[in-house]
Q: What sequence folds into this?
Protein backbone atom coordinates (compact mmCIF):
# COMPACT_ATOMS: atom_id res chain seq x y z
CA UNK A 1 0.00 0.00 0.00
CA UNK A 2 1.36 3.46 -0.89
CA UNK A 3 1.93 6.12 1.71
CA UNK A 4 -0.94 8.62 1.97
CA UNK A 5 0.03 12.04 0.68
CA UNK A 6 -2.99 14.12 1.70
CA UNK A 7 -2.58 16.34 4.74
CA UNK A 8 -5.63 15.70 6.89
CA UNK A 9 -4.46 17.32 10.09
CA UNK A 10 -6.68 20.32 9.46
CA UNK A 11 -9.78 18.11 9.14
CA UNK A 12 -11.51 16.99 12.31
CA UNK A 13 -13.23 13.66 12.46
CA UNK A 14 -16.95 13.65 13.16
CA UNK A 15 -17.44 12.05 16.56
CA UNK A 16 -20.58 10.11 15.66
CA UNK A 17 -18.95 8.75 12.47
CA UNK A 18 -15.77 7.72 14.29
CA UNK A 19 -17.83 5.94 16.94
CA UNK A 20 -19.89 4.17 14.25
CA UNK A 21 -16.79 2.98 12.34
CA UNK A 22 -15.16 1.77 15.56
CA UNK A 23 -18.33 -0.18 16.46
CA UNK A 24 -19.14 -1.46 12.99
CA UNK A 25 -20.87 -4.67 14.08
CA UNK A 26 -23.25 -2.78 16.37
CA UNK A 27 -24.07 -0.34 13.57
CA UNK A 28 -24.75 -3.20 11.14
CA UNK A 29 -27.14 -4.72 13.67
CA UNK A 30 -28.77 -1.28 14.05
CA UNK A 31 -28.96 -1.13 10.25
CA UNK A 32 -30.83 -4.43 10.19
CA UNK A 33 -33.17 -3.35 13.02
CA UNK A 34 -33.99 -0.07 11.24
CA UNK A 35 -34.69 -1.98 8.03
CA UNK A 36 -36.92 -4.56 9.69
CA UNK A 37 -38.78 -2.01 11.85
CA UNK A 38 -39.15 0.33 8.86
CA UNK A 39 -40.71 -2.39 6.70
CA UNK A 40 -43.11 -3.30 9.52
CA UNK A 41 -44.01 0.38 9.97
CA UNK A 42 -44.59 0.76 6.22
CA UNK A 43 -46.89 -2.26 6.18
CA UNK A 44 -48.91 -1.20 9.25
CA UNK A 45 -49.04 2.60 8.99
CA UNK A 46 -52.64 3.69 8.20
CA UNK A 47 -53.11 4.88 4.64
CA UNK A 48 -55.72 7.62 4.21
CA UNK A 49 -56.85 10.19 1.68
CA UNK A 50 -56.57 13.29 3.84
CA UNK A 51 -54.51 14.27 6.89
CA UNK A 52 -56.16 14.11 10.29
CA UNK A 53 -56.76 17.78 11.02
CA UNK A 54 -59.31 19.46 13.25
CA UNK A 55 -61.53 21.92 11.40
CA UNK A 56 -62.81 24.60 13.83
CA UNK A 57 -66.28 24.75 12.32
CA UNK A 58 -69.66 23.50 13.59
CA UNK A 59 -72.91 23.54 11.63
CA UNK A 60 -76.43 23.76 13.07
CA UNK A 61 -78.98 22.54 10.50
CA UNK A 62 -82.75 22.74 10.99
CA UNK A 63 -85.49 21.37 8.72
CA UNK A 64 -88.84 23.20 8.68
CA UNK A 65 -90.70 21.74 5.71
CA UNK A 66 -92.96 23.84 3.54
CA UNK A 67 -91.78 27.23 4.84
CA UNK A 68 -90.50 30.03 2.61
CA UNK A 69 -86.86 31.20 2.82
CA UNK A 70 -87.93 34.55 4.33
CA UNK A 71 -89.87 32.86 7.13
CA UNK A 72 -87.03 30.36 7.66
CA UNK A 73 -84.67 33.27 8.21
CA UNK A 74 -86.92 35.11 10.68
CA UNK A 75 -88.33 32.11 12.58
CA UNK A 76 -85.31 29.79 12.70
CA UNK A 77 -82.01 31.22 11.45
CA UNK A 78 -82.00 34.48 13.41
CA UNK A 79 -83.13 32.75 16.60
CA UNK A 80 -80.18 30.34 16.46
CA UNK A 81 -77.76 33.10 15.42
CA UNK A 82 -78.69 35.24 18.43
CA UNK A 83 -77.74 32.45 20.81
CA UNK A 84 -74.59 31.34 18.98
CA UNK A 85 -73.25 34.90 18.87
CA UNK A 86 -72.51 34.65 22.59
CA UNK A 87 -70.28 31.55 22.29
CA UNK A 88 -66.64 32.31 23.30
CA UNK A 89 -63.82 32.13 20.72
CA UNK A 90 -66.31 32.56 17.88
CA UNK A 91 -64.66 33.93 14.73
CA UNK A 92 -67.68 34.34 12.46
CA UNK A 93 -71.18 33.04 11.73
CA UNK A 94 -72.38 32.14 8.24
CA UNK A 95 -76.03 31.29 7.63
CA UNK A 96 -78.08 29.98 4.73
CA UNK A 97 -81.88 30.05 4.57
CA UNK A 98 -83.66 28.21 1.78
CA UNK A 99 -87.13 26.75 1.45
CA UNK A 100 -87.71 24.38 4.36
CA UNK A 101 -84.09 24.43 5.55
CA UNK A 102 -81.81 26.56 7.73
CA UNK A 103 -78.05 26.17 8.13
CA UNK A 104 -75.89 28.20 10.53
CA UNK A 105 -72.13 27.56 10.42
CA UNK A 106 -70.02 28.74 13.37
CA UNK A 107 -66.30 29.17 12.66
CA UNK A 108 -63.97 29.35 15.67
CA UNK A 109 -60.37 30.44 16.17
CA UNK A 110 -57.79 27.73 15.52
CA UNK A 111 -56.69 27.71 19.17
CA UNK A 112 -60.11 26.66 20.47
CA UNK A 113 -60.76 23.26 22.06
CA UNK A 114 -63.35 21.78 19.70
CA UNK A 115 -64.83 19.44 22.32
CA UNK A 116 -65.58 22.41 24.55
CA UNK A 117 -66.84 24.47 21.61
CA UNK A 118 -69.18 21.66 20.58
CA UNK A 119 -70.56 21.44 24.11
CA UNK A 120 -71.15 25.21 24.23
CA UNK A 121 -72.94 25.13 20.86
CA UNK A 122 -75.20 22.33 22.12
CA UNK A 123 -76.04 24.40 25.20
CA UNK A 124 -76.86 27.50 23.12
CA UNK A 125 -79.00 25.51 20.68
CA UNK A 126 -80.83 24.07 23.70
CA UNK A 127 -81.57 27.60 24.88
CA UNK A 128 -82.88 28.52 21.41
CA UNK A 129 -85.26 25.54 21.11
CA UNK A 130 -88.18 27.09 23.07
CA UNK A 131 -88.20 30.04 20.64
CA UNK A 132 -88.25 27.83 17.53
CA UNK A 133 -91.54 26.85 15.84
CA UNK A 134 -93.12 23.83 17.50
CA UNK A 135 -93.50 21.94 14.21
CA UNK A 136 -89.87 22.47 13.14
CA UNK A 137 -87.61 19.43 13.34
CA UNK A 138 -84.91 19.06 15.99
CA UNK A 139 -81.81 21.11 15.04
CA UNK A 140 -78.90 18.89 14.04
CA UNK A 141 -75.38 19.78 15.20
CA UNK A 142 -72.49 18.58 13.03
CA UNK A 143 -68.70 18.92 13.13
CA UNK A 144 -66.68 19.32 9.94
CA UNK A 145 -64.33 16.39 9.50
CA UNK A 146 -62.34 15.19 6.47
CA UNK A 147 -62.63 11.67 7.86
CA UNK A 148 -66.42 11.83 7.38
CA UNK A 149 -66.01 11.88 3.59
CA UNK A 150 -67.16 8.55 2.04
CA UNK A 151 -64.22 6.50 0.79
CA UNK A 152 -66.35 4.79 -1.88
CA UNK A 153 -69.92 4.33 -3.09
CA UNK A 154 -71.67 1.02 -3.74
CA UNK A 155 -74.43 1.42 -6.35
CA UNK A 156 -77.20 -1.17 -6.80
CA UNK A 157 -79.55 -1.34 -9.77
CA UNK A 158 -81.79 -4.00 -11.24
CA UNK A 159 -84.83 -4.78 -13.37
CA UNK A 160 -87.27 -4.59 -10.48
CA UNK A 161 -88.91 -1.95 -8.30
CA UNK A 162 -87.15 0.58 -6.15
CA UNK A 163 -88.82 -0.82 -3.04
CA UNK A 164 -87.17 -4.22 -3.52
CA UNK A 165 -83.93 -2.49 -4.50
CA UNK A 166 -83.91 -0.54 -1.27
CA UNK A 167 -84.57 -3.69 0.77
CA UNK A 168 -81.47 -5.26 -0.82
CA UNK A 169 -79.54 -2.08 -0.08
CA UNK A 170 -80.59 -2.20 3.58
CA UNK A 171 -79.42 -5.82 3.86
CA UNK A 172 -76.07 -4.87 2.33
CA UNK A 173 -75.88 -1.84 4.63
CA UNK A 174 -76.22 -4.10 7.69
CA UNK A 175 -73.44 -6.36 6.38
CA UNK A 176 -71.04 -3.49 5.61
CA UNK A 177 -71.55 -1.88 9.02
CA UNK A 178 -70.28 -5.09 10.63
CA UNK A 179 -66.80 -4.42 9.18
CA UNK A 180 -64.67 -3.21 12.14
CA UNK A 181 -62.98 -0.41 10.15
CA UNK A 182 -66.28 1.00 8.82
CA UNK A 183 -67.80 3.84 10.85
CA UNK A 184 -71.18 3.96 9.12
CA UNK A 185 -72.96 3.41 5.82
CA UNK A 186 -75.44 6.00 4.48
CA UNK A 187 -78.18 4.73 2.15
CA UNK A 188 -79.56 7.05 -0.54
CA UNK A 189 -82.22 6.56 -3.18
CA UNK A 190 -85.10 4.10 -3.34
CA UNK A 191 -88.64 4.54 -2.06
CA UNK A 192 -89.57 5.00 1.60
CA UNK A 193 -92.77 3.38 2.87
CA UNK A 194 -94.93 5.60 5.07
CA UNK A 195 -98.39 5.70 6.58
CA UNK A 196 -100.43 8.61 5.30
CA UNK A 197 -103.28 9.88 7.48
CA UNK A 198 -105.50 12.11 5.32
CA UNK A 199 -107.60 14.08 7.81
CA UNK A 200 -111.02 15.41 6.85
CA UNK A 201 -111.59 18.91 8.24
CA UNK A 202 -115.36 18.54 8.03
CA UNK A 203 -115.27 15.33 10.07
CA UNK A 204 -113.06 16.96 12.69
CA UNK A 205 -115.62 19.72 13.04
CA UNK A 206 -118.50 17.26 13.10
CA UNK A 207 -117.04 15.22 15.95
CA UNK A 208 -115.59 18.24 17.74
CA UNK A 209 -112.06 16.84 17.69
CA UNK A 210 -108.93 18.96 17.17
CA UNK A 211 -105.98 18.00 14.99
CA UNK A 212 -103.77 18.06 18.11
CA UNK A 213 -106.01 15.42 19.71
CA UNK A 214 -105.50 13.17 16.69
CA UNK A 215 -101.71 13.66 16.68
CA UNK A 216 -101.46 13.00 20.43
CA UNK A 217 -103.58 9.85 20.19
CA UNK A 218 -101.47 8.33 17.41
CA UNK A 219 -98.21 9.27 19.13
CA UNK A 220 -99.31 7.88 22.52
CA UNK A 221 -100.33 4.55 20.98
CA UNK A 222 -97.04 4.08 19.15
CA UNK A 223 -94.60 3.94 22.07
CA UNK A 224 -92.84 1.38 24.26
CA UNK A 225 -92.95 2.07 28.00
CA UNK A 226 -90.45 0.56 30.48
CA UNK A 227 -92.20 -0.62 33.63
CA UNK A 228 -89.23 -1.29 35.91
CA UNK A 229 -88.70 -4.68 37.55
CA UNK A 230 -90.58 -7.04 39.85
CA UNK A 231 -88.86 -9.31 42.37
CA UNK A 232 -90.47 -12.75 42.68
CA UNK A 233 -88.51 -14.81 45.18
CA UNK A 234 -84.95 -14.98 43.95
CA UNK A 235 -85.99 -14.07 40.42
CA UNK A 236 -86.16 -10.56 38.98
CA UNK A 237 -88.48 -9.83 36.03
CA UNK A 238 -88.24 -6.76 33.83
CA UNK A 239 -91.60 -5.22 32.92
CA UNK A 240 -92.08 -3.51 29.57
CA UNK A 241 -95.30 -2.30 27.97
CA UNK A 242 -95.06 -2.96 24.24
CA UNK A 243 -97.21 -0.29 22.61
CA UNK A 244 -95.38 0.08 19.32
CA UNK A 245 -97.55 -0.44 16.28
CA UNK A 246 -96.48 -3.40 14.15
CA UNK A 247 -99.26 -3.16 11.54
CA UNK A 248 -99.34 0.34 10.04
CA UNK A 249 -103.00 0.04 9.12
CA UNK A 250 -103.92 -0.62 12.77
CA UNK A 251 -103.77 3.16 13.16
CA UNK A 252 -107.34 3.14 11.88
CA UNK A 253 -108.52 1.50 15.11
CA UNK A 254 -106.88 3.98 17.51
CA UNK A 255 -109.39 5.78 19.73
CA UNK A 256 -108.97 9.55 19.50
CA UNK A 257 -111.72 10.63 21.93
CA UNK A 258 -115.15 9.67 23.20
CA UNK A 259 -118.46 11.48 22.79
CA UNK A 260 -121.48 10.42 24.85
CA UNK A 261 -119.76 7.15 25.69
CA UNK A 262 -119.10 6.39 22.04
CA UNK A 263 -115.44 6.06 20.93
CA UNK A 264 -114.24 8.13 18.01
CA UNK A 265 -111.72 6.19 15.94
CA UNK A 266 -109.10 7.51 13.55
CA UNK A 267 -111.01 5.89 10.69
CA UNK A 268 -114.01 8.08 11.54
CA UNK A 269 -112.15 11.33 10.85
CA UNK A 270 -109.36 10.34 8.44
CA UNK A 271 -108.38 8.01 5.62
CA UNK A 272 -105.34 5.84 6.42
CA UNK A 273 -103.19 4.58 3.57
CA UNK A 274 -99.91 2.64 3.64
CA UNK A 275 -98.04 4.06 0.66
CA UNK A 276 -94.80 5.72 -0.32
CA UNK A 277 -93.20 8.85 1.05
CA UNK A 278 -92.58 11.78 -1.23
CA UNK A 279 -89.09 11.38 -2.72
CA UNK A 280 -86.54 14.00 -1.66
CA UNK A 281 -83.55 12.49 -3.50
CA UNK A 282 -82.88 10.69 -6.76
CA UNK A 283 -79.86 8.55 -7.63
CA UNK A 284 -79.10 7.40 -11.17
CA UNK A 285 -76.08 5.73 -12.76
CA UNK A 286 -75.67 5.05 -16.48
CA UNK A 287 -79.29 6.07 -16.98
CA UNK A 288 -80.65 3.55 -14.44
CA UNK A 289 -82.24 4.27 -11.08
CA UNK A 290 -79.92 3.09 -8.32
CA UNK A 291 -79.67 2.79 -4.57
CA UNK A 292 -76.35 4.20 -3.37
CA UNK A 293 -74.49 3.26 -0.20
CA UNK A 294 -71.88 5.79 0.98
CA UNK A 295 -69.20 4.01 3.04
CA UNK A 296 -67.43 6.09 5.71
CA UNK A 297 -64.40 4.55 7.42
CA UNK A 298 -63.29 5.09 11.00
CA UNK A 299 -60.66 7.76 11.65
CA UNK A 300 -57.11 6.42 11.57
CA UNK A 301 -58.01 3.19 9.77
CA UNK A 302 -56.29 2.03 6.60
CA UNK A 303 -58.30 3.16 3.58
CA UNK A 304 -56.92 0.40 1.34
CA UNK A 305 -57.73 -2.39 3.80
CA UNK A 306 -61.20 -0.92 4.41
CA UNK A 307 -61.96 -0.69 0.68
CA UNK A 308 -60.78 -4.28 0.18
CA UNK A 309 -62.99 -5.45 3.07
CA UNK A 310 -66.00 -3.65 1.56
CA UNK A 311 -65.40 -5.23 -1.86
CA UNK A 312 -65.04 -8.66 -0.24
CA UNK A 313 -68.33 -8.19 1.65
CA UNK A 314 -70.12 -7.13 -1.54
CA UNK A 315 -68.73 -10.15 -3.42
CA UNK A 316 -69.82 -12.40 -0.54
CA UNK A 317 -73.41 -11.14 -0.66
CA UNK A 318 -73.76 -10.80 -4.44
CA UNK A 319 -74.87 -14.44 -5.03
CA UNK A 320 -77.89 -13.70 -2.79
CA UNK A 321 -79.06 -10.82 -4.98
CA UNK A 322 -81.75 -11.28 -7.67
CA UNK A 323 -80.25 -12.34 -11.04
CA UNK A 324 -80.65 -8.94 -12.72
CA UNK A 325 -78.91 -7.00 -9.94
CA UNK A 326 -75.97 -4.88 -11.08
CA UNK A 327 -73.39 -3.77 -8.50
CA UNK A 328 -71.00 -0.97 -9.39
CA UNK A 329 -68.47 0.69 -7.08
CA UNK A 330 -67.67 4.34 -7.80
CA UNK A 331 -65.74 7.22 -6.20
CA UNK A 332 -63.24 4.77 -4.72
CA UNK A 333 -60.69 7.05 -3.05
CA UNK A 334 -58.47 4.08 -2.20
CA UNK A 335 -57.51 3.81 -5.89
CA UNK A 336 -55.69 7.15 -5.73
CA UNK A 337 -53.83 6.05 -2.61
CA UNK A 338 -52.91 2.74 -4.26
CA UNK A 339 -51.50 4.60 -7.26
CA UNK A 340 -49.44 6.94 -5.08
CA UNK A 341 -48.12 4.08 -2.93
CA UNK A 342 -47.26 2.13 -6.09
CA UNK A 343 -45.58 5.24 -7.54
CA UNK A 344 -43.53 5.64 -4.36
CA UNK A 345 -42.39 2.00 -4.46
CA UNK A 346 -41.59 2.17 -8.18
CA UNK A 347 -39.62 5.39 -7.70
CA UNK A 348 -37.60 3.83 -4.88
CA UNK A 349 -36.71 0.79 -6.99
CA UNK A 350 -36.09 2.71 -10.22
CA UNK A 351 -34.08 5.37 -8.38
CA UNK A 352 -31.96 2.67 -6.78
CA UNK A 353 -31.26 1.02 -10.14
CA UNK A 354 -30.56 4.30 -11.95
CA UNK A 355 -28.11 5.48 -9.30
CA UNK A 356 -26.26 2.18 -9.41
CA UNK A 357 -26.19 2.33 -13.22
CA UNK A 358 -24.83 5.91 -13.31
CA UNK A 359 -22.22 5.45 -10.57
CA UNK A 360 -21.18 2.12 -12.05
CA UNK A 361 -18.90 3.95 -14.49
CA UNK A 362 -17.11 5.89 -11.75
CA UNK A 363 -17.08 3.77 -8.59
CA UNK A 364 -17.73 0.19 -9.68
CA UNK A 365 -20.62 -2.13 -8.87
CA UNK A 366 -20.00 -2.67 -5.16
CA UNK A 367 -19.41 1.00 -4.38
CA UNK A 368 -22.47 2.03 -6.41
CA UNK A 369 -24.57 -0.37 -4.35
CA UNK A 370 -23.27 1.27 -1.16
CA UNK A 371 -24.66 4.58 -2.41
CA UNK A 372 -27.92 3.01 -3.59
CA UNK A 373 -28.56 1.48 -0.16
CA UNK A 374 -29.04 5.01 1.18
CA UNK A 375 -32.38 5.40 -0.64
CA UNK A 376 -34.39 2.50 0.84
CA UNK A 377 -32.67 2.84 4.23
CA UNK A 378 -33.54 6.55 4.50
CA UNK A 379 -37.11 5.83 3.42
CA UNK A 380 -37.55 2.98 5.90
CA UNK A 381 -36.16 5.12 8.72
CA UNK A 382 -38.63 7.85 7.71
CA UNK A 383 -41.53 5.37 7.79
CA UNK A 384 -40.46 4.31 11.27
CA UNK A 385 -40.34 7.90 12.55
CA UNK A 386 -43.68 8.79 10.93
CA UNK A 387 -45.28 5.73 12.52
CA UNK A 388 -43.90 6.61 15.96
CA UNK A 389 -45.26 10.17 15.60
CA UNK A 390 -48.70 8.80 14.68
CA UNK A 391 -48.70 10.31 11.18
CA UNK A 392 -50.88 8.52 8.64
CA UNK A 393 -49.83 7.85 5.05
CA UNK A 394 -52.11 10.37 3.33
CA UNK A 395 -51.89 12.13 -0.03
CA UNK A 396 -49.79 15.02 1.31
CA UNK A 397 -47.30 12.70 3.02
CA UNK A 398 -47.03 10.45 -0.04
CA UNK A 399 -46.45 13.45 -2.30
CA UNK A 400 -43.75 14.70 0.10
CA UNK A 401 -42.01 11.32 0.12
CA UNK A 402 -41.99 11.17 -3.68
CA UNK A 403 -40.68 14.75 -3.78
CA UNK A 404 -37.87 13.89 -1.35
CA UNK A 405 -36.71 10.81 -3.25
CA UNK A 406 -34.44 12.79 -5.56
CA UNK A 407 -32.63 14.39 -2.61
CA UNK A 408 -32.04 11.30 -0.49
CA UNK A 409 -28.89 10.11 -2.21
CA UNK A 410 -26.94 13.39 -2.41
CA UNK A 411 -25.25 13.09 0.98
CA UNK A 412 -24.37 9.42 0.48
CA UNK A 413 -22.78 10.14 -2.92
CA UNK A 414 -20.52 12.79 -1.39
CA UNK A 415 -19.44 10.51 1.48
CA UNK A 416 -18.80 7.42 -0.68
CA UNK A 417 -16.96 9.36 -3.40
CA UNK A 418 -14.70 11.13 -0.89
CA UNK A 419 -13.98 7.86 0.91
CA UNK A 420 -13.15 6.25 -2.44
CA UNK A 421 -10.57 8.98 -3.14
CA UNK A 422 -8.96 8.45 0.26
CA UNK A 423 -8.68 4.71 -0.37
CA UNK A 424 -7.18 5.45 -3.80
CA UNK A 425 -4.49 7.48 -2.04
CA UNK A 426 -3.59 4.48 0.09
CA UNK A 427 -5.51 5.03 3.31
CA UNK A 428 -6.89 2.11 5.26
CA UNK A 429 -10.62 1.78 4.57
CA UNK A 430 -11.70 2.37 8.18
CA UNK A 431 -9.41 5.38 8.55
CA UNK A 432 -10.48 6.64 5.12
CA UNK A 433 -14.16 6.43 6.13
CA UNK A 434 -13.50 8.44 9.29
CA UNK A 435 -11.32 11.08 7.64
CA UNK A 436 -13.38 11.42 4.46
CA UNK A 437 -16.70 11.77 6.29
CA UNK A 438 -15.21 14.27 8.73
CA UNK A 439 -13.87 16.31 5.82
CA UNK A 440 -17.26 16.68 4.13
CA UNK A 441 -19.48 16.56 7.24
CA UNK A 442 -19.83 20.32 7.63
CA UNK A 443 -20.79 21.06 4.00
CA UNK A 444 -23.11 18.01 3.92
CA UNK A 445 -24.87 19.10 7.12
CA UNK A 446 -24.99 22.73 5.93
CA UNK A 447 -26.48 21.72 2.57
CA UNK A 448 -29.16 19.63 4.29
CA UNK A 449 -29.99 22.41 6.76
CA UNK A 450 -30.25 24.87 3.88
CA UNK A 451 -32.85 22.68 2.22
CA UNK A 452 -34.71 22.18 5.51
CA UNK A 453 -34.67 25.93 6.16
CA UNK A 454 -36.55 26.48 2.91
CA UNK A 455 -39.44 24.30 4.11
CA UNK A 456 -39.28 25.17 7.83
CA UNK A 457 -41.45 28.32 7.69
CA UNK A 458 -44.33 26.26 6.27
CA UNK A 459 -44.64 24.62 9.69
CA UNK A 460 -45.88 27.96 11.06
CA UNK A 461 -48.47 28.59 8.34
CA UNK A 462 -51.61 29.61 10.30
CA UNK A 463 -55.17 28.45 9.80
CA UNK A 464 -56.75 25.29 8.45
CA UNK A 465 -54.74 25.43 5.21
CA UNK A 466 -51.54 25.74 7.22
CA UNK A 467 -52.44 22.74 9.37
CA UNK A 468 -53.25 20.77 6.23
CA UNK A 469 -50.01 21.75 4.45
CA UNK A 470 -47.80 21.30 7.54
CA UNK A 471 -47.50 17.61 6.66
CA UNK A 472 -45.43 18.58 3.59
CA UNK A 473 -42.50 20.27 5.42
CA UNK A 474 -42.74 17.86 8.35
CA UNK A 475 -42.36 14.84 6.06
CA UNK A 476 -39.53 16.45 4.10
CA UNK A 477 -37.68 17.38 7.30
CA UNK A 478 -38.02 13.83 8.65
CA UNK A 479 -36.94 12.25 5.36
CA UNK A 480 -33.93 14.50 4.73
CA UNK A 481 -32.84 14.19 8.36
CA UNK A 482 -33.02 10.42 7.97
CA UNK A 483 -30.85 10.59 4.84
CA UNK A 484 -28.32 12.72 6.75
CA UNK A 485 -28.20 10.14 9.56
CA UNK A 486 -27.72 7.32 7.05
CA UNK A 487 -24.94 9.23 5.24
CA UNK A 488 -22.99 10.08 8.41
CA UNK A 489 -23.51 6.88 10.42
CA UNK A 490 -24.43 3.85 8.30
CA UNK A 491 -22.74 4.60 4.96
CA UNK A 492 -19.24 5.14 6.50
CA UNK A 493 -19.51 1.75 8.24
CA UNK A 494 -20.48 0.07 4.98
CA UNK A 495 -17.58 1.83 3.22
CA UNK A 496 -15.12 0.80 5.93
CA UNK A 497 -16.09 -2.83 5.47
CA UNK A 498 -17.10 -3.32 1.86
CA UNK A 499 -15.69 -0.48 -0.31
CA UNK A 500 -12.93 -1.52 -2.72
CA UNK A 501 -11.07 -0.02 -5.67
CA UNK A 502 -11.54 -1.02 -9.29
CA UNK A 503 -9.42 -4.08 -10.03
CA UNK A 504 -8.80 -4.78 -6.36
CA UNK A 505 -9.23 -8.42 -5.48
CA UNK A 506 -12.32 -8.87 -3.36
CA UNK A 507 -11.74 -10.19 0.12
CA UNK A 508 -14.13 -12.77 1.52
CA UNK A 509 -16.98 -11.01 3.29
CA UNK A 510 -17.35 -11.92 6.99
CA UNK A 511 -20.14 -14.37 7.70
CA UNK A 512 -22.07 -11.87 9.88
CA UNK A 513 -21.86 -9.23 7.17
CA UNK A 514 -23.10 -11.63 4.51
CA UNK A 515 -26.11 -12.64 6.61
CA UNK A 516 -26.98 -9.06 7.53
CA UNK A 517 -26.80 -7.82 3.91
CA UNK A 518 -28.78 -10.84 2.70
CA UNK A 519 -31.51 -10.30 5.29
CA UNK A 520 -31.61 -6.56 4.60
CA UNK A 521 -32.03 -7.21 0.88
CA UNK A 522 -34.83 -9.70 1.46
CA UNK A 523 -36.61 -7.45 3.96
CA UNK A 524 -36.43 -4.42 1.64
CA UNK A 525 -37.33 -6.02 -1.68
CA UNK A 526 -39.75 -8.84 -0.80
CA UNK A 527 -42.63 -6.66 0.51
CA UNK A 528 -42.38 -4.42 -2.55
CA UNK A 529 -42.74 -7.35 -4.95
CA UNK A 530 -45.58 -8.87 -2.90
CA UNK A 531 -47.58 -5.62 -2.57
A:
Amino acid sequence: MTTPTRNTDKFKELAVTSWAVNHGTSVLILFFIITLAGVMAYQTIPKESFPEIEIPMIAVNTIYSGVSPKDIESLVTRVIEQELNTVPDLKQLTSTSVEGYSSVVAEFTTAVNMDEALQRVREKVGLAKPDLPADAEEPGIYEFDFQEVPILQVNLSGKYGLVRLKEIGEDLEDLLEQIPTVLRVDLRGGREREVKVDVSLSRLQYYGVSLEDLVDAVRDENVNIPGGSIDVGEMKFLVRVDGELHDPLSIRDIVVDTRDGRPIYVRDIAEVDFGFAERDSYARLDGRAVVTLDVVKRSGENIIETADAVRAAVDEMQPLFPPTTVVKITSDMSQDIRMMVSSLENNIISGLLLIIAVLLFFLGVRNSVLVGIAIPTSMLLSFLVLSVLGVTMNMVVLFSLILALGMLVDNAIVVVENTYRYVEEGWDRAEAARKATGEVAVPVIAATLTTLAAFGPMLFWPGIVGEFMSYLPMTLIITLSSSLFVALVIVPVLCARYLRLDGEKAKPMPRLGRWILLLVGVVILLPMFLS
Summary: Residues 224-230, 236-243 have pLDDT under 50 and may be disordered. Residues 334-372 form the longest helix (39 residues).
